[in-house]
Amino acid sequence: MAVKTMMLTAEEVEKAAALLRNGEVVAFPTETVYGLGANALDREAVEKIFQAKGRPQDNPLIVHCFTRAQLTDLVTEIPPEAKILMDKFWPGPLTLVLPKSAAIPQVVSAGLDTVGIRIPDHPLALELIQKTGFPLAAPSANLSGRPSPTRAEHVWADLQGKIPAILDGGETGWGLESTVLDCTVKPFRLLRPGGVTLEELQALTSIQVDTTIYGASLDATPASPGMKYQHYAPQAEVFLVLGQNTPAKIGELSEDYLEVGKRVGVMTWDERCQLYPRLTCLPMGPSGDLSILATKLYHLLRESDRLGLDVLFIEGVSEEHLGLAIMNRLRKAANEQVIHT
Ligand code: AMP
Ligand code: MG
């Protein structure tokens, strides 16, 4: 049944908190992407998240807290190294997977005995969690399989008629989801690269990080359930193009599509759009600026749909710093269709 979706302003945060206290779901901004929140301790409320998003039941949710004091009831153990990470990166885009307590319903953790937790670095998100008085389970507020929302209007496009309210906090900060780190194994395992970079984690000499796992996105028994799903997909067929002479390769490959009247786009740095006069350009920002690209990335993938592109070529970026998380998302958008020139 369709519900009427309210767009709430920052001044109306109490209305959002009241809905959540009433067992409803509400979309809210964080510093990474918009989340679709519900009381993490209420099974029925959390089930509404899965329904609204069409999210597979075996993909666990991240629990968002307001203070570290809330963790006492949610996890059974916090390794000393995890505390070092909390000191350094919380509030912020780092999710720590820890052994869960019985307070967390199975639906939140998708049956696992662990739970992913973080404290978001966004004033509205923190105010909302504080006002509700309980932790919020919240995945990204998109329809399952669509790019994560970085603006309230993206949430509206996906979930209007399915959820009672969206708290509008403008554009999100990072534009990419949190880094997910499994702290239940030694060394800790990187499950998803994100806003906190691998270089930042590795700079802490007391922390060892195993990075061998996150790339195995199509593994049949993934370490993090979310890995096996195709995410971030625009409707166009997407090719990720890597290497030196991308304009020649993309020019050649696009010929066949243009000839039969397909709409072909290219995602590249601002200055390089001119290299593709026959294609629709989705500009990624000034050359090499990974943080600007991160803020635009999901919007550009959604623009591809709005423009009705049939085929989209994306020029890859270097996998350093935020580039690791960006390329992880681009590989998924391209469903691993990668062309080397
Ligand atoms: P989303 O909320 O849509 O950004 O997705 C959350 C991501 O965190 C998914 O990739 C999940 O698989 C991962 N995740 C959440 N909780 C756990 C957990 N307990 N163990 C492993 N991965 C998790
Ligand atoms: Mg998501």
Describe this structure in words.
The protein folds into 2 domains: 6-214, DHBP synthase, CATH 3.90.870.10; 237-340, Threonylcarbamoyl-AMP synthase, C-terminal domain (Rossmann fold). 30% of the residues lie in helices and 19% in strands. It has helices at 13-21, 43-53, 71-74, 80-89, 106-109, 123-132, 152-159, 198-202, 246-259, 290-306, 322-333; strands at residues 6-8, 26-28, 35-39, 62-64, 94-99, 114-118, 136-137, 165-167, 179-182, 188-192, 209-210, 237-242, 264-268, 280-283, 311-315, 338-340. The protein has an 11-stranded mixed β-sheet with strand order 1-8-2-3-7-4-6-5-9-10-11, with helices on both faces. Strands 14-13-15-12-16 form a 5-stranded parallel β-sheet, sandwiched between helices. Strand 2 (26-28) and strand 3 form a beta hairpin. Magnesium ion (MG) is lined by residues 139-140, 148.
Topology readout:
Layout: E1 6-8, H1 13-21, E2 26-28, E3 35-39, H2 43-53, E4 62-64, H3 71-74, H4 80-89, E5 94-99, H5 106-109, E6 114-118, H6 123-132, E7 136-137, H7 152-159, E8 165-167, E9 179-182, E10 188-192, H8 198-202, E11 209-210, E12 237-242, H9 246-259, E13 264-268, E14 280-283, H10 290-306, E15 311-315, H11 322-333, E16 338-340
Helix pairs in contact: 1-6, 10-11
